[in-house]
Amino acid sequence: MSQQTLPPGVIGLHTLPSDHHDGPWDSMIVPPGTKERLLGTALLVLRQGRLLSGLSGAPHGLIVLAGPPGTGKTTLAQGLAQAAALKMAKRGATTLVEVNPHAFPSDMLGESQRAVSRLFLDTLPEIAARRPHTIVLIDEVEALAVSRSSASFETNPVDVHRATDAVLAGLDQLRTQCPNLVLVVTTNFLSAVDEAVLSRADLVMTTKLPDEETIEKIVASSLNELAGQWTDLMPLAQDADLHAELAKGLRGLDGRRVRKTVLAALTVRTEVALDPTQLTADDLRCATQFAQDG
Asked: Where is the AAA+ ATPase domain (predicted)?
């Protein structure tokens, strides 16, 4: 389906598993058990959702990833979709649907509610009917499901409440109509998401800034990726003492900034930018200092 024919609010439709989506899941460095719990939650719904739909506490298929920017929420969500699709591949393909929540708010009273209702009651069920498994990704879900208890009355509170009400009704309808659909949403501000939405979640997981040990692993991973392109860099990728030293200087940064700092070391000297095989430990130390000062 071309970009021009995508339904309103949908910015991507992908058939999984796909080679194009390999990588993020394995490269993510997260606390032990994180990936297993995410994958288990998704697979339970994808495989057993219809059988569980008759329970009084039936799953909604909703996973919430919350945490500061740069802590890997979206990457985890995208990687989860591919990992789940690989597990389910023998039973058919999986559709990954990416939704832009900012496509729905409107200054017209009631328009947000109607747009959100169409997404949950029409668009997603129609897409889900095409393949046996469906995973939907919505970043910054607070744009759709604003906490009604804290919504500002300066910004059309009636439409805000109606849009959130539409999300709640949509979640309940999806549970009934599409019990094998998994909805993964992310938010930088958990307190901004409506409490009734969170109560419907099967899993709320908080991503945190990496500790020093995790930063060491991210540095090592980033250098190994560079060494995959330029084998002369393998000694740097294998220097555990250097990784530990750099990690101390990178404390407090998110995982994305840590990886970008390693990449930025290639720009410290123009000769290294032209020939990355000339990268040195001092270049990495310099980039780390820049990151501290920046």
From this structure: 59-211
